[in-house]
Amino acid sequence: MENAVISIKNASMMFNLSRDKVMGLKEYAVKAIKRQLHFDEFWALRDVNIEIKKGEVIGVLGLNGSGKSTLLKLVAGVFKPTKGSVTVRGAVSPLLELGAGFDPEFSARENVYMNGAMFGHSPAHMNTLYKDIMDFAELWEFENVPMKNFSSGMFARLGFAVATQVEPDILIVDEILGVGDHLFMKKCEKRMSDLLSHGTTVLMVSHTIATIKSMCTRAIVLDKGKVIRTGRPEYVCRDYETGAYIG
User: Fold this and answer.
1) What is the pTM (predicted TM-score) of this model?
2) Mean pLDDT calculated for residue range 25-35
3) Could you say which of 42, 54, 172, 217 is the most buried, measured as most Cβ atoms within 10 Å of its Cβ?
4) 12 in Cβ contact with 47 (< 8 Å)
5) Where do the domains of the chain lie?
6) Strand pairing partners for 121?
7) Interior CA angle at 221 toward 177 and 67, to 5°?
8) Whole-number Å distance between alpha carbons of 135 and 244
9) Distance (Å, rounded) from C-alpha 92 to C-alpha 163?
10) 192 CA to centre of own chain
């Protein structure tokens, strides 16, 4: 596909799952040395082919265990595929897990600057973004409070504010919009719409069908690690809701 910023070709991801119940690291090490550990292969993804062009918003649907989060982690560079290839062109801002990249012992302010550094931004640049980040997150009252005292909603607000304020080329979102109150979710949707108007590409997982329908330009259904549906969100979501995507 021309202008593809994400190109996934015949990508498969395999994990080794232990058959044995191991009590603690010491027992694991002993069994590993004696070669007494037994594993089963688990293919989280199989032969996935997806091309995503600049400015698209791709919604990924699927039941638990279908491979959604694994797919996002491949694109984010957390995993490398066991087989096939994943090519990403542009700066990626991942929102994969609540609080990922935050140090709970550090304050909100310290974590903002630390996350900015992870995205390759200097303290001077983060100075220009800090007010907008804290305004969006609505956490001024807690800017010097260690984040170990934050609720899950506060984590989500700050994480989303940092990841989107730096204006990434590619934003990866794993169900983060499902955390927080209704007004915050509306703010997230507005912020993502603003990013899209500047050409940001979004790859997102959501169990909320309404979000996929309203925000995405294309939807994909994963089942047992395989892409089994792709197309316009209204049709893909309809099939997903009715179970028509199964076999």
Assistant:
1) 0.78
2) 60
3) 172
4) yes
5) 4-93+168-241, 105-166
6) none
7) 75
8) 44
9) 9
10) 14
CA 36/CA 34 separation, integer angstroms: 5
Query: How does DSSP assign the chain, residue by residue?
Result: -TTEEEEEEEEEEEEEEE-S---HHHHHHHHHHTT---EEEEEEEEEEEEEEETT-EEEEE--TTSSHHHHHHHHHTSS--SEEEEEE-S-EEEE-STTTT--TTSBHHHHHHHHHHHTT--HHHHHHHHHHHHHHHT-GGGTTSBGGG--HHHHHHHHHHHHHHT--SEEEEESGGGSS-HHHHHHHHHHHHHHHHTT-EEEEE-S-HHHHHHH-SEEEEEETTEEEEEE-HHHHHHHHHHTTT--
* C-alpha of 152 from chain center: 16
In tens, the pLDDT along 76-113 reads 998 999 999 999 998 888 877 656 678 999 999 999 99
> Band of the pLDDT at 141, cuts 50, 70, 90?
very high
What are phi and psi for residue 52, nearest 5 degrees?
-125, 125
Report the distance separating Cα 157 and Cα 149, nearest Å.
Answer: 14
The fold of 4-93+168-241 is Rossmann fold (3.40.50)
57 is written with which tokens?
A: 């918003």
* Rounded-to-integer distance, Cα 92 and Cα 174, Å: 14
